[in-house]
UniProtKB/TrEMBL annotation:
GO terms for biological process: carbohydrate catabolic process. It comes from Lacibacter cauensis. InterPro entries: Carb-bd_dom_fam9. This is Cellulose/xylan binding protein with CBM9 domain. One of its GO terms (molecular function) is carbohydrate binding. Gene3D superfamilies: 2.60.40.1190. It holds the Pfam family CBM9_2. Residues 9-182 form the Carbohydrate-binding domain. SUPFAM superfamilies: CBD9-like.
Amino acid sequence: MLAANDFALEEQPWPQYKTDAEVRFSIVHNNESIFILYRVKEKHVRHVTTAINGAVWEDSCVEFFIAFDGEGYYNCEFNCIGTALIGYGTGRNNRELLPADVVRMVHVDTTMRKENDAYVWELLLQIPVQVFVKHTVTSLSNVTAKVNFYKCGDLLPEPHFMCWNKINSATPDFHRPDFFAAAVFEEVTSMASI
């Protein structure tokens, strides 16, 4: 269960991709939407992908995966300029990308600045429940799900793969629902943490 609303991505399960990037995120909901604020500090940034459902994982990218049942999960991926990819499926292969008009329902705000020898960027997401088109989610109150949060940059000068809940696999692979952690979206009458 997510007991607070501020977390660090501290797990780096693949030592060959070690990074000194700093990543924190906060998550809240208001019954109708999930709000996630990512705060990233890293030496290099890349923001090439501008097409919806493009290869955002090759850029400076943060990701949120969520499963509402044991059938499948959504992978919500965003590069540092807010370009989004959202898919659904049961594993890494045979994923179905959601239609562009559904992906566009996610509201994204981004900021970036240079701070000494690093880039500091923030990404604020508002993900309405209507994005989860494979499920009938009308309210998040008391909904139980399984989640994980990630940071990657496959084509950065120093590729890296960070996660919130540790993954045990020989090679980098975020598509591992067996390593998602349980989360309960607490009942709220106004904005509150999960």
